[in-house]
Amino acid sequence: MSDDQPQPEQPPDKSADKQHADVGIVVALSREIGYFLDGCDRVRKYSGGNFTFRGGKFGDIRIATVEAGMGAGKAKRATQALIDAHTPPWVLSCGYSGGLRDDIGVGDIVIANSIVDAHGNRIDVDLNMSTEGTKRLHVGRFVNADEIIRHVAVKKQLAEQFDAIAVDLESLAVGKVCQEAGIPFMAVRVISDDTSADLPAEIVSILNDSGSYRVGATMGAIWKRFGSIKDMWRLREQTNVAAGRLAKFLQGVVVQLYEAKH
User: How does strand 137-144 pair with strand 109-117?
Assistant: First the structure.
């Protein structure tokens, strides 16, 4: 072929695109991903489409995260915004989850092989992972709820009804967007509350839609029930421990996904 003949057009090199991410992560709350991002370099933050994005590098791996806020509707829109902005070949739904079985405790990692909800929606996740020989790692079905599940009795009912190991609010919505876009998806979450005790009643009233604590509601809750201080402090400690565990596990996950892709 002579030099003056037209050359076939080459596909764009996404690795050279500074906006492109190797792994995209959708969370509801910033504190769910904060410890993981502490281990990344050159983390940058920006806002777009009513969502907060953060990007950085874990070694050679480009990471992009989006904070959706709580609930399926926000998770759906945030996932699409993440895909449009950063074209990740993998998307993870990460964050806190409620444990549904007595053998699953705070800080345990749970990974979904299918996700259902009470409205008849379901997705299956193409996942071939064995937990044999591992501790505090569980693979099974997630059930997505419309609101925070506070009571142990309800959690156990969900476990029996759906044969599920964990409950959250967003993973099903994230997974459906990814499946429609043809993007591989995983739900990797950490247990922040288990079946040992009900969540404090005040948790629903003091959280706003973005997952931030409302100061006025918090003070009101303390005024109505002084013991809520102890309950909320215990929950704060549990979520801090859970976020640290999730960060450590995610480091291994993103490395394996990156190496498999390359």
Answer: parallel
Q: Tell me which H or E stretch contains 158.
A: helix 152-162
Residue written as token pair 């640290």: 244
Its CATH class, for the domain covering 20-199+244-261, is alpha beta
112 Cβ contact partners less than 8 Å away, ≥ 6 residues apart: 125, 127, 139, 140, 141, 142, 166, 171, 175, 186, 187, 189
Residue spans of the domains in the chain: they are: 20-199+244-261
Chain centroid to CA 68: how far? 10
The pLDDT tens digits for 156-214 are 999 999 999 999 999 999 999 999 999 999 999 999 999 999 988 766 554 544 444 44
Q: Is the pTM of this model over 0.70?
A: yes
Question: Rounded to 10 degrees, what is the CA torsion of 8, 13, 16, 19?
Answer: 130
Burial class (CB in 10 A: 0-12, 13-18, 19+), 260: exposed
Neighbours of 13 (CB within 10 A): 8
Length of the chain: 262
